[in-house]
Amino acid sequence: MSRVAVITGGAGGIGRAIALRLAQDGVDIAIVDRSAECDELCALLRGLGVRAGAYQCDVSDFEQAGAVCGQIVADFGGVDILINNAGITKDNLLLRMSEADFDLVVDVNLKGVFNFTKHLSKALMRSPAGRIINISSVSGLMGNAGQVNYSASKAGIIGLTKTVARELAPRGVTCNAIAPGFIETEMTRDLPGSVKAAVLSAIPLKRMGNPGEVAGLAAFLASEQAAYITGEVIRIDGGMAM
Ligand SMILES: NC(=O)c1ccc[n+]([C@@H]2O[C@H](COP(=O)([O-])OP(=O)(O)OC[C@H]3O[C@@H](n4cnc5c(N)ncnc54)[C@H](O)[C@@H]3O)[C@@H](O)[C@H]2O)c1
Q1: pTM, whole model, 2 decimals?
Q2: Longest dimension (CA), the chain
Q3: Short-list 177, 178, 181, CA closest to 202
Q4: For residue 171, what is the DSSP state?
Q5: Protein residue closest via CA to atom 25 of ligand 1
């Protein structure tokens, strides 16, 4: 039986790369995204010989998330891998940060992880080798001026990851976090030149990462070789946050 992965934010840069990478390993893919534009990706995935489906959902909505998770389990017959990847930024300095932007980012980035982890926990426990991989950020480890909402949500993901790792370990489910640095996607495309230059000067490897590199790490954590790793946070940041 092939394994089944649910990837939230699967229409975006990193989520799409993870979907394609896991499909190359023969994993069936359920893409969850607020964007409805997943037809081309699903066709590509099916072209790799796996089952693929797209589910439109706002991950921050508990009820919607529950309905989508139920539908995915019914459509695919189970879930083995959950990649909590959906995320947004609404950057501003603390003095200018609105309550609405703080709440929105925490709701999508952190509560979204809770929603999908909770709604899929029983399915993952039924899997012979359940895997949860949460996409955090170096901002959650180091803090980042202008990202009080984002860094709080990403640090929250780390606490959630370690607790879920402890709670689900007896049921054979591992739970780990990936903390990317600056990765070339839609999220980082519009950074002003001066910010990009400052970022690059702070990265020992002197370049941004690419989504395929994050996907390779996610595929490793989802694999049999990573069966003894749980509650871990792995940076993939060119050395930026060491
Ligand atoms: N790009 C980076 O440098 C970087 C660095 C560290 C962490 N990350 C994290 O990686 C993850 C993926 O980011 P990316 O760079 O691929 O960004 P992206 O903007 O390309 O993709 C994010 C995806 O999430 C989806 N999404 C946003 N809000 C949603 C919601 N409420 N419900 C469902 N889907 C929603 C978007 O539609 C999009 O497809 C995010 O959690 C992000 O915080 C990115």
Answers
A1: 0.98
A2: 53
A3: 181
A4: G
A5: 9
Number of domains forming the structure of the chain: 1
For residue 199, the tally of other CB atoms under 10 A from its CB is 15
pLDDT in tens, 144-154: 999 999 999 99
Report the nearest-CA residue for atom 7 of ligand 1: 137
Tell me the β-bridge partners of 180: 236
Please indicate whether residue 157, judged by its CB atom, sits closer than 6 Å to ligand 1: no
Give the range of the structural domain holding residue 188, as residue numbers without chain letter. Answer: 4-236
Atom of ligand 1 nearest to the CA of 136: 7
Tokens of 92: 């501003």
> What are the structure tokens assigned to 139, written together?
């901002």
Average pLDDT over residues 67-93: 98
Report how far residue 236's alpha carbon sits from residue 217's, in angstroms, rounded to the nearest whole number. 8
Domain harbouring 141, CATH code = 3.40.50.720
